[in-house]
User: What shape does this take?
Amino acid sequence: MSATLGTMLKQLQPDWSIQVLEKLGDAAEESSNPWNNAGTGHSALCELNYTPQKPDGSIEISGAVKVNEQFQVSRQFWSHLVENGDLPEPSSFINPTPHMSFVWGEGNVEYLRKRFDALKDHPLFEGLEYSEDASVIRGWAPVLIPGRAKSQPIAATRIAAGTDVNFGALAGSLMKYMEDNGAQITYDARVTNIKRQKDGLWRISCRREIGLAPFDIYARFVFVGAGGNALNLLQKSGIPEIRGYGGFPVSGEFLRSDNPELVARHQAKVYGMAAVGAPPMSVPHLDTRVIDGSTSLMFGPYAGFSPKFLKSGSVFDLFKSIRPHNLVPMIAAGTGNLSLVKYLVGQLAAKKSTKFAELQQFFPKGEEKDWYRITAGQRVQVIKKDAKKGGVLQFGTEVVAAADGSIAGLLGASPGASTAAPIMLGLIETCFPDRIEAWRPKLIAMVPSFGKKLSDDPALADSIMTRTAQILRIPR
Ligand SMILES: Cc1cc2nc3c(=O)[nH]c(=O)nc-3n(C[C@H](O)[C@H](O)[C@H](O)COP(=O)(O)OP(=O)(O)OC[C@H]3O[C@@H](n4cnc5c(N)ncnc54)[C@H](O)[C@@H]3O)c2cc1C
Assistant: This one.
């Protein structure tokens, strides 16, 4: 997020001085690290949680259209940078990987058929295919079928336009662009406090993780892009807008296989249905991952609970985030989400073999010897005040900004990295409203659809999707 915002600001206002403070020794070692997230270019091509079934049985597609629109903004921003030589060869961070949804059981098959019917004619979902035929599905993803009972009803959708994104490589390249253009990036520097001074500047206090004395820097504008730790730092800033917000950390694990024979047999991201009580981001999926030139498979995530707000955080993070103003929302969100708590406890207690059985629901002939566990990133879900319920748990992301726009941060986790560009454009509009007119030509050069909705303009959608596909070398 910080790398995206910093790059945008460098493009819009090259004379501004920008400083990045990162507590770890390199960029993108937390959630944006390629092995800490699933690398799905989230565009709702396959993720079923964006298309819930309504009580009348019809499918709600507005969430899917929104996420797809957002990803098209990211594609445009990355294309602009690639075209100008500000990002390297696209395959270093984005690779074509078909996106599939795969379900079993009569009810789920009916749901997927209806979802396909609801999306197939939408301009942003052009090319979506559907099948209930095992031989067709086997052609799309060979490992899904052998070992499965012939009597089991199954269905899948597939779209070639899906992508696998190495968000770590992307963040590293954006940081390099910023540094090459005058930004100062300081690693091993942990921000410990953020306070407003009488002169209106923000004082950012830092501690060196390695050697050297603490130091302060002063800024007119601060973006708290600290991932799971943003809540804590925004609380320290004392802005009233953060009052009532809390965080609920969810940890995770993936299974990974580098077995070349298996990797060669599966080239897709295959998303299934979430288990009852599971948070939407715990939908299981079997993924091709392309990282630093080599391909692996990944399955998961298996959710769990840890009170840390970052993978490298402290077990006191959750406890330290509790304030009088967020106590009621946090208790209400906890008691209102007992099925989630039950699900997480169940996942924590689950035996290795039970977890592997989840993989075998996708890949019946999968063998434990080919897979090993890796720890995923921490996600801190947003808890916020709710007039009726006292507090609610939210699964999206949310920008929290001071009324004068001098400080802002991003809470929440999903869909996250895929939508960093539209989220940061929104933040720019919130925090720099008086500059937007002057910046508009450059904003349109970076994102040609800026200010427009692609779903309202199929011709524009077609030309933009075709163009970004050519530049990023991914299917249309
Ligand atoms: C299991 C899992 C799967 C996911 N799958 C996907 C996916 O498939 N597609 C997708 O688009 N998104 C996915 N996401 C979400 C995505 O990873 C995140 O939304 C995104 O990486 C967040 O980026 P960020 O810059 O906000 O946070 P981060 O990448 O976590 O960066 C925050 C940075 O702030 C630093 N920091 C924290 N505190 C301080 C401090 N006090 N001082 C200095 N530095 C500090 C950290 O060290 C870190 O480098 C997934 C997330 C998880 C956990």
About this structure: Residues 2-187+221-472 form one domain. The chain has a mean pLDDT of 95. The radius of gyration is 22 Å. The longest strand covers residues 246-257.
